[in-house]
Specification:
By secondary structure, this protein is of the alpha+beta class. The protein is built from eight helices and five strands. Strands 1-2-5-3-4 form a five-stranded mixed β-sheet. Strand 1 and strand 2 form a beta hairpin. It is globular, with a radius of gyration of 18 Å. It starts with 10 loop residues before the first helix and ends in a 17-residue tail after the last strand. The relative contact order is 0.18.
């Protein structure tokens, strides 16, 4: 985003939104509930960003509420801009093993395997991952009305006491990297699922490698702009 576009979101609002995002990772939720909660968190972030851009800090609260309602109901657009971003990321990740797809609820999903993203037991971004994130940061600057959610995963090696914070640290590393390239941190929610959501068998090295991954979701809430703040009654 350009330096002239300053997003004013109050710290308490940001904290509330991040807590909503973390709540979406509750292990007791089924897949539908997780999708709804994730949508609400991303919608709140997107709405806050748009509301702040249009109406300042006060508009961020209204935008967050509208965005959460839209996101919680699966209210995401798959616009021309989203399609352009998907194509740009598919081109940027061609031959890397990174999967770029559209989800059924109109989120752009970027799944980054461990051999591209992080070494075992570490949260430092690998050199192979940097060009992917560089291009991703550019697409986010081109489409400022979207919200982002980064989710870190680990294999089952080690305990939850190790894996849970490691998965969060990996997601946070991605957010920090994007922030250094001009993406407003308020747009990015981070979450860590530890080893709770494997996509392959942890009994094999190949399976464990697939489970060590980072997933990035991008959503465009169905809110062209947040509504104006409620009018203040005139004193009588």
């Amino acid at each position: 985003m350009t330096s002239s576009l300053r997003i004013q979101v109050r710290p308490r609002l940001v904290a509330a939104l991040l807590l909503a995002a973390l709540g979406a990772g509750c292990a007791s939720m089924d897949e539908t509930q997780q999708t709804t909660a994730a949508g609400a968190a991303m919608g709140a972030l997107g709405g806050a960003v748009i509301g702040s851009m249009v109406h300042g800090p006060r508009g961020a609260w209204t935008g967050a509420a509208v965005g959460a309602a839209a996101g919680g109901g699966g209210g995401y657009l798959w616009s021309k801009k989203m399609e352009e971003q998907k194509r740009a990321m598919q081109q940027a990740t061609q031959g890397t093993g990174v999967a770029v797809t559209q989800t059924p609820d109109n989120l752009l999903k970027i799944e980054v395997p461990s051999d591209v993203s992080f070494q075992i037991g570490r949260a430092d971004i690998e050199p192979n991952f940097r060009p992917v994130l560089d291009r991703f940061a550019q697409t986010l600057a081109e489409h400022p009305g979207t919200a982002v959610r980064v989710i870190g995963h680990t294999d089952r090696t080690g305990s939850d006491a190790i894996n849970d914070p490691l998965s969060v640290s990996r997601a946070t590393s991605v957010r920090s990297y994007l922030g250094d390239r001009g993406v407003a941190p308020q747009r990015i929610a981070v979450d860590g699922r530890g080893s709770r959501e494997p996509v392959a068998d942890n009994a094999t090295e190949t399976g464990r490698a697939r489970n060590r991954r980072v997933e990035i979701f991008v959503g465009e809430p169905q809110v062209a702009q947040a509504p104006a703040p409620a009018p203040t009654p005139t004193p009588r």
